[in-house]
Amino acid sequence: MTKFNFTLIIPSLDPDEKLAFTVTSAIAAGIDDIILVDDGSAREMRHYFTELEKAHPEVTLLTHEKNLGKGAALKTAFSFFLENRMGRHGVVTADGDGQHRIEDIIACAREMTRGERAVVLGCRDFELENVPPKSRFGNKATSLVFRLFFGMRLSDTQTGLRAIPTEYIKTLMEADGTRYEYETNMLLLMGQRHIPYREIKIETVYYDDNRATHFRPIRDSFRVYGLILKYVANSLASAGVDLLMFFLLGQFVFTGGDRLAVLLSTVGARVISSVVNFLINRRFVFSNRSGIRKTFVRYVCLAVPVMLASWLTVYGLSRLAGAGVGQIGRTMLKIPVDTVLFLISFRAQRNWVFAEQTVRSKSEKRRGTSVARIIGRTFLVIFTVIFFVVFSVVALLFVLLKGPSPTMRDQVVLSAMQASATKWLPGLFLDDALVEEICNRSADVQEEIIPMGALGSRTDDSKDPAGAGDSGDSSEEKPFDEWADAIDGMIYKTYSGSSFKAYILIVKDPSRVYVGTSSDYKSGKIGARIFEIVEREGAVAAINAGEFSDIGGKGTGDTPIGLTYSKGQCVWNDGLKRTFIGFDAENVLHVFESMTQAQAEELGIRDAVSFQTGNVLITNDGESVTLHHAEGNIGMAQRTAIGQRADGAVILVVTDGRSASSFGATRDDIIDLLYSEGAVVAGMLDGGSSSMMYYEDYYTKYDIDMEGLDEYQRQGLTNRYKAFTKPRHMPTFFLVAPES
């Protein structure tokens, strides 16, 4: 008969004949050392133990006078084993209710001695039909918790069949608990101390829907999940304190909602909640006995980056959500952000901040510092950060697009549809029909008609609007000349709106404004960058102009879309219906919803481009000006537009966008800005990452500090280019020739 050099440990409470069957079967299979633990069984049940002890010399009986719990029974057996059986390879723990077959017990013992010495877990298949639903659900839930909170992949967290090498028994006896939670804590300690473990499949056996188990669902579940539940409870309490203090500080102390205010509110709230969280975690959750100074330093080292991550993410998401997000909105954004940080923080606190320091063997140290482990942890950190960012963005989009505010939903949809790179986003959360409805509704024009005379003094050169005149004689007011101090025959200025920053260039002589082209559009050359076109044409200023194709998103910008004129010649006509924006031979700007080449020739068009339909902004009939507002168009984006005043001066406008300080402008923002500058006709040009304004040496001409400019602005861009690549290749630009 085969002899085995391990000890079988069977703890039991109020057994029946299944215990006798398990013991006799084990002895028959060649297992020669069995420790039974009577964990305070009822008097009428104790005969099962005494009869087995008397009948079989292989059996050693250990007895608890009263029920102390399965964990206490295992610890009693482990202690006896270490004192009396040190020559053996290890122990196998099994249940005495017949759930563990002798063949599986022996298989676990053999696996324990193969290769690297490791704890072997006998794992059941919970997908089988005979598994009680409560057992299937309980195991899956616990496995998920182990994976999320502790980083351990276990298919059966509740198995009682475990083969433990002798060298790990003393360490595992340090796990807390005396009842069912001890087996769970044993697994957690294995992960914390880097004790290797392996799983093998065993037969899944349940008798009478597992009614014989002594597991008490409510009380024992609390014990099993005690550490997690206590951490969750403390974290929720601390999160409540944090959210309350964040709201109160932001509402009454650090008001304003800017970056500094959000940071100070976050820091103040986190300091208060962190002190509460640290004290409770140290004393009641992790029961740490190390010096408070060491653990507090570690806690601070963890809390600071977590706090900064929370601040940066909440601030960034609140800026993406738009200018209308108040303190309540920022507080709501903080909830999903801190949920992800909660999981990360738990593992860091358990495994580092409050971990009890023990001396590890050389093999354990090697495992803890191996190259593979370092690389693995590095990738885990990278993956966690990526997951955190993606999760936060998706959660924000879900809340905004599926939430209770149709206005916010429409704003996000229209903003995403402004850029080719994000057009697909709304379709992830909303039906295509709804996205199309929102876009169509945004094109519904609400015309506002204003008499030409209401433009006021902006186009009236006869009077100084500021009242400045000859200080000696107020009766002889000098005519105000806005061009007296103009540089290059142009006026350059900036404007800051509620959610955007605009760069404005007013050109006195409209004949200087024309369309520059990158090529003949027949040779297959890629489009030109704005710096290339101004150098080639000798222009002093430029903005991006018409729509262009970008098949496959390659950014070649080689071909325009729609009817295009340059220097009196039609250079492109693909027959597509588009908004038409261009100057005639008399230097008058025309903006129409569509234009044929025949109509353009009849008007005497010299320079023009096309953009998507629905981008007529301002028109006039000589007596009144019509502002073509689109009430539903609240999408924010980087914008480019062109307009003309009644005196012929051309207004070029570009806005920033996609940044914390300038989220973007709506269509109506651009209309109102152009009208305030005196425009009587205007149209929108290509926007998004195409939005660029060049003005040669503007920082020198207007005494602008170059220290605050980026690399492209130092080359002549007035706005900040927000794309991830160099300025785009484009086929058309509105250029401004030098003064003659």
Percent helix:
40-55%
End-to-end distance, in Å? 111 Å
Q: What is the general shape?
A: elongated
Number of strands: 24
- Order of strands in the sheet with most strands: 8-19-18-22-20-21-10-9
Biggest pleated sheet: 8 strands, antiparallel
Q: Averaging pLDDT over every residue, what do you get?
A: 80
Structural class: alpha+beta
Low-confidence stretches: 207-223, 357-369, 456-475
How many alpha or pi helices? 21
State Rg: 38 Å
How much of the sequence lies in strands comes to: 15-25%
Describe the structure.
The chain has 740 residues and is of the alpha+beta class. It is 41% helix and 18% strand. The protein has 21 helices and 24 strands. It has an eight-stranded antiparallel beta sheet with strand order 8-19-18-22-20-21-10-9, covered by helices on one side. A seven-stranded mixed beta sheet has the order 3-2-1-4-6-5-7, with helices on both faces. It has a four-stranded antiparallel beta sheet with strand order 11-24-12-23, with helices on one face. A hairpin with a 2-residue loop joins β13 and β14. The radius of gyration is 38 Å and the shape is elongated. About 7% of the residues have low confidence.
